Amino acid sequence: MGVKVYGIPMSTATRNVLMVLMEKEVDFELVPVDMKNLGHKSPEHLAMNPFGKVPVYQDDDITLFESRAINRYVASKYEGQGTPLLGSTPKEQALVQQWMEVEGQSYYPPCGALVSQLFFNKIFTGQGPDPAIVEVNEAKFNAVLDIYEARLSESKYLAGDFFSLADIGHLAHTEYFMAHTGKADLINSRKHVAAWWKDISTRPTWKKIKRHV
After folding, report:
1. What is the pLDDT of residues 151-207, one digit of tens each?
2. How far is 166 from 97, CA to CA, in rounded Å?
3. Contact 33, 21 (CB under 8 A)
4. Contact predicate 106/144, CB 8 Å
5. CA atoms in the 13 A half-sphere facing the CB of 1
6. Which of 21, 45, 82, 169 is deepest in the core (most CB within 10 A)?
7. Sheet strand arrangement including 56-59
8. What catalytic reaction does the record list (predicted)?
9. How many C-beta atoms lie closer than 10 Å to residue 50's C-beta?
10. Where are the beta strands (DSSP E) in 23-65?
11. Half-sphere exposure of 4 (CA within 13 A, CB side)
C-alpha cells in the first residue's frame, strides 16, 4: 500500500509530517480525521494510535504515531531521494538530533502555549487568553529566541549550513505564532532568527503545504 497520513489540515504536527514527505518527494494520501465528531477517539483510530491523536502514518507494514518519530523514519527510509534532511556525517547527524530535541523541549512549549492562548483558545473555547500564562511564556520564549539568535549568527540553519529535520520541526507552530498572536516582533526583531524564518517559511514545499491543506 502507499503512504497514508491520518490527520487534519489545522494540525501543526500533521503539517510538519507532510512537509517532510514533500521534501523527500514521497507520494502520500492525506486521510482526514473528523476530530469534531471525535473520529480520533474511534476504535479504528485508537487501534492505530492508542493516545487518540494525529497524525498517524502508515507505510507498507508499519504504523507510526508521534510526528518527530515519523519524520525521522521518513527521512531515513527515503534517504536516497529528495532533500537530504539528516546530515551527512556523524557530527551533522548529532547536531540535527540535538536541535530537534531543543525544539521539542525548549522552543515548542512556550511558542505552543502562546499560540494556544492567543489563537486557538478563541476558536475552540470562545475565551480570551490568560494574561498570566501569556506573560510567563512570552518571557520563556524570549529567552529561547536569544539562544537561537546566537546559534543562527554562526550558521544558516540550526544544525549547520544545511536545511534539515531540525528546521522543519519549527515550521507549523511558528507559522501560527507569526500570523495569529500579534507577537511576530519577537521573531522579526532578531536579525538572524528573522532571516532563518524567512528562509524556511518561503521554501516552495512549505508554500505547497499551505495550499494543500
Report:
1. 999 999 999 999 999 999 999 999 999 999 999 999 999 999 999 999 999 999 999
2. 7
3. no
4. yes
5. 11
6. 169
7. 28-32, 3-7, 56-59, 62-65
8. RX + glutathione = an S-substituted glutathione + a halide anion + H(+)
9. 9
10. 28-32, 56-59, 62-65
11. 12
Domains annotated for the chain, with CATH where assigned, are 3-83 (3.40.30.10), 90-203 (1.20.1050.10)
Question: Tell me, what's the pLDDT at 62?
Answer: 96
| pLDDT for 1 | 65
Integer Cα distance of 70 and 6 in angstroms: 12
Residue with cell 470562545: 126
> Could you identify the residue written with the cell 529567552?
143
| C-alpha cell recorded at residue 89 | 556525517
Q: Tell me, what's the pLDDT at 112?
A: 97
C-beta separation of 136 from 142 below 8 A: no
Residue among 5, 12, 7 at smallest CA distance from 120: 12
| Residue 192: C-alpha distances to residues 13, 90, 195, 198, 199 (Å) | 25, 26, 5, 10, 11
Residue 10's identity, in one-letter code, is: M
- What residues contact residue 161 under an 8 Å CB cut-off, 6+ apart? 155
The structure's pTM equals 0.93
| Amino acid type, 185 | D
